[in-house]
Write a structure and sequence with these properties.
6-stranded antiparallel beta sheet, 6 strands
């Protein structure tokens, strides 16, 4: 099985950082599967005025999408400039976790990526992600508290 990865770091004007990883796994039968991993801050800012937090101390979110086979990842180009990549909605994994800023969140994800690349972690397993990020919460398993939903509605 072959594995190829690309990473693209985007510094935002707000001072925050968004990071994208693209991963291509070539199966034993030659079929390739591509995924897109996104890491972003849950800090309030213009592009994210009402972040939904599934834990009060969550500072960052990771979402992992399967990519449509119609357009392949171009590893020689920055990921943020590949507008034709088609993530299949919804993401198949998503979790939030606390970090001491964007740099710490990026380091935590780089450690996880190194484990995936070494074959020590299954990138499709939420159980593996939650073992790697013990203070994380699987956002598909946790309902948003009604009071948080109500606060967002009142601010619009």
């Amino acid at each position: 099985m072959g594995l190829r990865v690309a990473v693209d770091i985007l510094k935002l004007g707000s001072g925050h950082t968004n990071v994208a990883w693209a991963l291509r796994v070539n199966g034993d039968e030659g079929a390739a599967r591509e995924t897109l991993w996104l890491l972003y801050s849950l800090a309030v800012r213009d592009v994210l005025p009402f972040p939904i937090k599934y834990r009060d101390d969550a500072t960052h979110e990771v979402t992992i999408y399967a990519l449509s086979a119609a357009v392949g990842i171009r590893f020689e180009r920055p990921l943020w400039k590949q507008s034709l990549l088609v993530p299949r909605q919804p993401s198949f994994l998503a979790f939030q976790f606390p970090a001491d800023g964007d740099d710490d969140a990026l380091v935590q994800m780089q450690v996880a990526m190194a484990r995936v690349m070494a074959g020590q972690m299954n990138p499709d397993s939420i159980a593996d992600w939650l073992r790697q990020f013990p203070r994380a919460v699987d956002i598909y398993a946790e309902p948003v508290e009604d009071k948080k939903r109500d606060k967002r509605k009142n601010k619009r």
